[in-house]
Design goal:
292 residues, alpha/beta, 8-stranded parallel beta sheet
Length: 292
Amino acid sequence: MKSTTLQIGSFTFHWGSRTYVMGILNVTPDSFSGDGIFAAGDVTEQAVKQAEGFLANGADILDVGGESTRPGSEPVNAENEMERVVPVIAALRQNFPDVLISIDTYKSSVAEAAIRAGANIVNDVWGFRADPEIASVAARYRTPVILMHNRSNPASVEVREKLGGTYVGAEYADLVEDVKRELMNSVEIALKAGVEEKLVLLDPGIGFGKKREHNLELINRLDEIRSLGYPILLGTSRKSFIGFTLDLPPDQRVEGTAATVAVGITRGADMIRVHDVKEMARVAKMTDALVR
């Protein structure tokens, strides 16, 4: 590993000691998993309530996102995205002063507004390739970053009733080597902008521009991604490749997610990003007891 620890405020990550849990707070009306909190009343109030439950059940980080990244979703402009996430982040910071908060965005202006509101981490699903300025924002605030691999192409999405969308046209010459090379391209962007290497985490981008078989293979070979020397975030929660494998809708994918989490941890995942925090924190704790 490039660095064995990462300190954010009073919290220290000891990579390899245990699996850290990131709980997903979708401040959206169109989350693929149906957990967007727009329909639940006062958004900020609901976000704080959901966060309280996550923290009580083992979440180490709250990941706040204001734009759905499901295949076929409509893009959200930066102004609307900020209107969604900034009040929620500010409320979380006020109610939980010491909690770690990540902002799930690929837009530099949203990232900066979120950091000013209290976010500690920038989680970019495009690995700094969609908006080059976001790397400079992260460097300026010395913010840890999560860089995800992404080959999403809206033209290659197939949407099936109940199961959701999948990328049917994604092709790789060599899946793992291609993903590793493109992740390192994102790392290079970050380092050139001034982001310290110890602040970089990588995400193989399960479900983003990948067929079902690609996703299964990447999880099983996650140790090869971790060999790059950076901590790994694994985000498999309720995703369509689980639905296609089990023939189940998003709200019935807890067991499938658990299998991906357990295998992912055995292959070196340092952090998991999940909807079902209570259940997956337990899976992580048990898997850690077995393999760490």
